[in-house]
Amino acid sequence: MNQDTILVLDLGGTENSVIARMIRLMGVYSEICPHDISSKDLANMPHVKGLIFSGGQNRLIDGVPAMPDESVLSADIPKLAIGCEDMPEMNVRIIDEGVVRHFVFDKCRCIANWNMKSFVEEQIRLIREQVGSEKVLLALSGGVDSSVVAALLIRAIGKNLTCIHVNHGLLRKGEPEEVIRVFKDELGANLIYVDAVDRFLDKLAGVEDPEQKRKIIGTEFIRVFEEEAAKLEGIRYLAQGTIYPDIVESGTKTAKAIKAHHNVGGLPEDLKFELVEPVKFLYKDEVRACGIELGLPESMVYRQPFPGPGLGVRCLGAITRERLEAVRESDAILREEFFKAGLEGKVWQYFTAIPDFKSVGVRDHARSFEYPVIIRAVNTIDAMTASVAALDWHILETITFRIINEVKGVNRVVYDLTPKPTGTIEWE
Ligand code: XMP
Known about the structure:
36% of the residues lie in helices and 21% in strands. The two termini are 41 Å apart. Helix 5 packs across helix 11 (284-293) and helix 6 (144-157) crosses helix 11. By secondary structure, the chain is of the alpha/beta class.
């Protein structure tokens, strides 16, 4: 980044991201890097104005506390150590905003000029520098990350970006239309829309096991993408919506690897393209702010998380077209009522699922035998644990009445009261 930067050296700190984000909120760019960078590395980063050593519970490597490189310790640059009792440097035990602010502005003399406007300008310059007049390909799912990457690349290289939007039939109601409206009609993107609905549903027919379903959806997605990419000529780059937590959580030497992250859409590494990853240094909320800066609609930028396999894991058991439509329609009703009630953005994730069994009911004075729909609405910080949203009774009633009256084949609605654990957020 071509701006005043504070590097957070990861000496096993668990709060590296808290520190980096705190500094970014002060308007100064900050990045986390491995603990053992050398002064040579620093010489290649002329914008670095200060170093913060972030120690903590993961500091021991083979029983020995991780230490910065000697050449870095003796480098003539302001340093602050947090949670590293044994350091020669100014050391504080816990993160204190006042201390960090004093360090960033008084010791390192940083200028607070990092914001989304400057980020967008800088990325446009960097993208043009990286790809020149070559062509770039992007799998545009309509999710926040790939949408922001698309908008950035359209600004930077216009028609030299080709977006492929694969409709696998497992998207929410109105999603493919929204992608086409925003990117093709409004932003003028070079967008290839692939209707692969029958192909995916044929492959999934009769498959009950959730992991098998995920595998089929992932593999088929790659096949469709590769086939479409093979039809194009002269593409050298592949753009991806990798974001900063994907990189940080995948682990530096001292960071505890939380999970191995896969590329967006699970694209394989042996696709013969060079990567363009313009938001890889942004946290999720910054990606959203970047989307707003680029003029994307709020409904796209602030949308709730949606799993890659989509409605495929909400149409429980073997997917049928009938139940898939029922889950899509009931989900649309749920989202509409949440929007009307002002709950959008207040509940972390909310959706419906449909099981693969029917229950007895009564409709028009006669026995009915139809599917139930499950409502799930949860709040969480990191999706590792979750609590059930305490929804207003009246809202639940309105949603229920609408679903049993408007969704074909559904005669019953239940509200899932299970926290995670023991339930997961999704049912499959
Ligand atoms: P669970 O069900 O594991 O969900 O409690 C945690 C979060 O992850 C999402 N999720 C997925 N996302 N591919 C994804 O991209 C998947 O296969 C998948 N399964 C669950 C889920 O929606 C929730 O936000």
